[in-house]
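Appendix C reproduces, verbatim, an entry submitted by the partner laboratory led by Prof. M.T., so that reviewers can inspect both the input and the predicted structure.
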Amino acid sequence: MSFPTNFLWGGAIAANQCEGGWNEGGRGLSNADVLPYGEDRLAVIKGDLQMLTPDNEHYYPAQNAIDFYHHYKEDIELFAEMGFKALRLSISWSRIYPNGDDERPNQEGIAFYRNVFAECHRHGIEPVVTITHYDIPMNLVTKYRGWKNRKLIDLYIKLTKTLFAEYGQQVRYWITFNEINIMTSACFMSAGIVFERGENRYVSIYNAVHNVLVASAWATKLCHEMIPNSKIGCMLNAGIYYPKTCNPLDVQAAQSENRKHYMFTDVQVRGEYPEYVIKEFERYGFKIPFEEGDKAILKENTADFVSFSYYSTRVAEANAKGKYDSNLLKSADNPYLEHEPWGRFIDPIGLRITMNEIYDRYQKPLFIVENGLGTIDQPNADGYVADDYRIHYLREHILEMKKAVELDGIPLMGYTCWGPIDLVSVATGEMKKRYGFIYVDRDDTGKGSLRRTRKKSFGWYKQVIATNGESITDPQN
């Protein structure tokens, strides 16, 4: 069994990292627009430092990003040249509802995405749309305190009704929230949460978690009702924790870390909170803020598929603090693996292990919607990058993905690698942390011509797609 003929090969981008046009087309201010470049960024991402409006002392890379807003036709044409079957992209909430609680949607924003989806279809590319990808109107942060406020469920429902009504004929695949499990660490970036002095953070975070889970279930219900032939899934930042040793305490620590993340998809796929989470909540004195109808909505509207990002596995060690920072998640060292410049371990076999663990847990179709190597590229005078290292990285991961399908029998819908075109890193705000098959002439300070040029990996991925994953050469061997 090889990849099915309808396998969704492609790439993944996000509005907050590529779109730009932050003050054009009627768009409102979003939380991504106030994430600064530099030493304050992480504190703002986590909600520890309040930055509610842009100032003149910082550079905000998401505001202009790589200007997909004006370059989308050119970029989609390049994706089509590689043979993309799918493009995962996201909606900027504040482009549809500038303040989040507006009475009517912004028609310029509606038209923009309609044109983007039409351009995809013109080239035979299936849009895979993430409704919320680290994106929330700032008015919902300042007026309602972000996802801590249950009012956002209603506003999110309004957003999804608009999207399904407007784009139901153009989009068949939907994802409710990007990397939902990251909202407990990247609180402002993911959920618009900023903390006040003396606030009980645990209670605030898990109130927000409940609101997001209920909103996700409502979106699933509405999608099935309004677009009967569509599929809508959840999304996890995946990559399992290995135990540091076979010491039972390390194994137990790894189990505990994995459960912290699976709890989200446990609810989204199984329809109820798992008992281990309920017991933890009891120990912390937290009571799930169920309101009438919540349990039924969760139980009756589960995800059609489980999508996930995979960059790295992590290591859990009992009674020890993590040494490496991977997607804002701590890990102990792993002496068996190399790691890229920003600390993630490079673990292709871990992808297959993770796929098996997720499928064993849920028995739902899987969809790898992010995977890639963020590293520094050195273009020549013409903007060409001989990125053999990226080809090697992706080849090794695709081979393990192939084994999971062929040898383990895992139903896999598609593979949309992260950042097919260079874009702003969400964790660091950098451009030098590049993922793409397409080089974009822009630096960490926002300077550059924005010229797009094909890297060596561009032609390589084109061949991978053309042969449905059968032809995968490695220039390093």
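The chain has one domain: 8-466. Additional entries are available on request from the coordinating office.
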